[in-house]
Design the sequence.
């Protein structure tokens, strides 16, 4: 059994991680930390976990994290960067849900996150945890930076296009739509039911933090290295709880069988499902699962390729991908604990 | 492996049953019938099942149902009553989701369902499939009538009160609230998103079909037999997909420790969770699970007892309870395949 | 033109009041106060008001409220009680949306609101602003306590029953259901979209603050004075933005034509609509309007009467009723500015 | 008073038109037709109209439409094309909500609508009812083709770009998102609450019927005539009742002050509101109103212009624009009856 610690278990990615770990089979959760809820039973805080967890939240200072084989940080940006070093030195492996180790370029990181990074020396060691790109490196990693939710869907939709030369890489458009849980369990007026329900809007059009993450990751792809990736990314808030749909628009510059390219690229991927050409994926089809489903369209056989990708932002976009990374890091079957079927309707 | 057939697999209880059976472990689904979708792959009809079912829907006439150990009818009222006899004769056991065998009194049945019953001779054999009342009879049953969704929640909230003598049994009030999936996957204007969203209403106040079912079942309880049960039941439609909450009002006629009565009654029940006194259960806590959670309140220490009960109408209120019944009928552990954790948020 | 000031214009009842006043015709809004948003254009804060208000929010200290004919307090409890005296002395009339002046009994008030009341001497002068009870007193009032949202719907559903002697007044049940806007524009986790959507729960079962308000008001009705009113009130949170539905259960003690009693009682009321017997009112039918629609049912012709009442919690339950009260106080036609048609769907 | 007839008053655009007409002031609705509901009081069918309409639905055959000054067709495609000729001959003017007269090219029309057109001779007379393009022609028109809902939002977002030469007209992208009411009041499984709620998907990616309408209209603009317009349009279904948001992506080919271009273009338009640069319009800001609000963004000062446009699909996208057209056709102030304020929250 892998001894697991969870830092920051009171948010949406935290409770989703706990749901997945409870049914995993090869892990034992030994500590779940929360400063605010220290002493409170986890199952009292999240009654959906009644009967599955007997633990109480521990104050982070007192938590036996150093004895853990694997520590997940389901925390806001800025927490993992201060604690990762200590845990790695103690022999733990770390999977960080936050953005602390997602970029390789410190200047870019500090520009976007507006603080000084506490452990920039770990940038080179940290592995960007998108298994579809970095599977082998993740297997050997001590520190994995779990990708952002939009970043996962957008990259999976773009990867086969960026690895080949049939579309204009300099003018990609990703129109993103996310359910409200993507914003986290934060008491903010904009996220209230009475504000977000029966409503639709774009946000962060000036620049969303997943933008540099996507661009850096795609630019540094083996074989695509050095290429210029130009991406316009506009996220929108959908009045639903979970789910991301990314609509990608790419200008075709040379003919190719895009369906075949996508199918080939993802033929062996357990969690990327290339649907029959012309499919119209729905976010609920993957709700609660670690799947990303992708469909290709070419309207009027013109020169614009449309790629649709759906995922559950809290699973493949967060906690599920983190478990997938843990499975890789500890030599377990990659799909272990991740075979849920979507709850539909 | 238990060979299972599913008659009518294209509705909401059908797809939920298929979700549960896919993860069950002791069953093999050999036929899923649908007249309208015959020949269509089940996973094309319900893309949430991609990778879990390779079967196509079979026309009911051609389906190898007679070779099944267990046949589930996830059909509208009126189907099972015509086919159950034949399947029982062929050695199958039958779990019927519809109302065809829920009542014992033919006159009452025909008054409420407005057709002549096709197999009234099976009324005496059919067992009402609420395990919390009829567990031992279900174990031996060939034909189980799976209870209605409201009927399950309301009965579980009322049982400990009806089995004891501390409230006025003649004037019980059950104010029910259900998500829209309870109405089924029917193309009706009233159920459209643009009608049911951002809206709330009562319906069937004149008389809901679960009313006679609840009253007959509670009246015929061992120990309560012959008692008069007077129940006012008003259902309401909630703009959510899944979930039922029943709010019960009972006049206290003699003092008792109601919390203790409920805890004792359900101490050994795997799927009824009596919450600490004063809890406020939410439907999402049990979404996708077979749990019914119950909480007791006594406002201002007055003479009115308030009981709150939540369940997922498609699981404990339908497909999950059906699997629970199948487990009992085939001597499997009662919880097999029913240990899902709620997807929250 | 009536010069109007609005204290606390940044919440949901505030923006709703501004919507109604903009289309009123006989009022001029001269000041809208907000400490937090002072200096910000009202139409920048609430873009739905673009083109309708040129004013900016004023700091409460600097606002020219004393020159106003009518001041609305769309503030949390505790604000109006400190400022009403000063405004009344300056010749303004005051309509308070909060609970500060809703009760007559100071001990009860302080028990429920848990602070010492700042102006208990105004209790006797304040008129409870339910026109269907107190129309003549409101016309002459300087200080009107606008009723709570649940309190309005529940009282309108109960009034004809409490004024007559055909049901058991000591054991009334009101099962209330409200949209999320009823909780106000407060950044609280419980009110987040990802918490409240696709979910249903009861709350405040131990005792909701509208309970003493309803009981005191009904107990002090002319003709009903001194009667004991026993009420069990359980509110529930519906995943919709606006709307309240109250389901009332009353035990019939002597026969009567309840439909006729209700129709007679409300025959001349412009904002109470007694629907044909057996109707099933929906909250959306009155969304955005000042109407309360009521329907009566008597299931199975038994001894339990069911009354259904719907209103928009922000209109008849708050801002609309406040405008109705203002119209009465200033001798305007009672319906002025309140003839909107519901936006359906 | 203008005598108005409404053909097909039982759908969503019908009830919205009736809401607007009831408050208009210069019209008298003399007939509302429905074959299915003939004889039923309009206010019984749409209880939100209680107190505002005393009329019953009339069978279309018997309706006194020929005596009307203005007849609105709130009908599916294929109805107006058969009846318009007769009404025009009788002296009525006609505003058609359907697509029957939206295109000028019969071959294109028949290709998209897959039937033979009944009155192609009226194509040349029919005026496309987007006042921001065709105001003067609408004033003189006898037959106005009211634009589609997406077509209105997308064209208003594109017009200033197509009338000038600063972006690549051949590669425009419009990512559309609509509330469910846009699909009409049709009993279809896909539109059920339990299907569309808590879900998000694209649809009609192969080709939506508003696509040819947008392209033909923009291509035939005065000054832009003959230009090639290349548009990729992907519509998506949002789990909300009303509202459209269109996100436009255009490649900038020469520098310009786009904010100034838009502000100048729409300076005198009563129903197009160009928001300050960088605004993030929300659909609810214009819910229930005839406004279209537009905001411009240029992420990272790059070469992609992003235009966001919101409207209420049932108002500016249907019934409101129809009333605006009627106002123009009858010489009334253009804004008459269209000054509602959005109901927020």
Sequence:
């Amino acid at each position: 059994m892998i001894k697991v610690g969870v830092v920051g278990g009171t948010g949406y990615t935290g409770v989703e991680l706990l749901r997945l770990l409870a049914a995993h089979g090869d892990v034992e959760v030994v500590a779940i930390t929360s400063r605010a809820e220290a002493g409170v039973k986890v199952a009292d805080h999240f009654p959906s976990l009644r009967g599955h967890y007997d633990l109480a939240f521990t104050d982070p200072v007192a938590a036996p994290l150093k004895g853990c084989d694997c520590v997940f940080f389901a925390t806001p940006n800025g927490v993992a960067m201060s604690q990762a070093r200590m845990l790695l030195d103690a022999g733990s492996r770390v999977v960080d849900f936050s953005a602390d180790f997602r970029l390789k370029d410190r200047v870019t990181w500090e520009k976007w996150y507006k603080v000084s990074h506490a452990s920039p020396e770990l940038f080179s060691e940290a592995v960007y945890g998108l298994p579809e790109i970095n599977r082998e490196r993740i297997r050997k990693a001590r520190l994995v930076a779990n990708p952002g939710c939009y970043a996962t869907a957008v990259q999976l939709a773009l990867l086969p296009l960026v690895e080949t030369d049939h579309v204009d890489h300099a003018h990609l458009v990703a129109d993103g739509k996310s359910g409200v849980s993507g914003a986290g369990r934060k008491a903010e007026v904009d996220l209230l039911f009475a504000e977000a329900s029966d409503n639709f809007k774009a946000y962060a059009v000036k620049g969303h933090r997943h933008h540099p993450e996507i661009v850096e990751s795609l630019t540094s792809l083996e074989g695509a290295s050095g290429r210029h990736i130009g991406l316009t990314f506009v996220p929108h808030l959908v009045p639903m709880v979970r789910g991301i749909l990314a609509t990608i628009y790419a200008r075709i510059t040379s003919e190719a069988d895009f369906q075949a390219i996508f199918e080939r690229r993802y033929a062996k991927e357990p969690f990327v499902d290339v649907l029959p050409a012309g499919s119209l994926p729905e976010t609920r089809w993957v709700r609660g699962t670690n799947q990303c489903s992708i469909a290709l369209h070419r309207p009027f056989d013109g020169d614009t390729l449309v790629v649709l990708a759906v995922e559950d932002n809290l699973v493949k976009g967060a906690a599920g991908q983190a478990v997938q990374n843990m499975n890789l890091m500890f030599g377990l079957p990659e799909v272990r604990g991740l075979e849920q079927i979507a709850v539909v309707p």
Remarks:
- Chain C touches chain A at residues 12, 179-181, 183, 185-189, 191-198, 239-241 (CB under 8 Å).
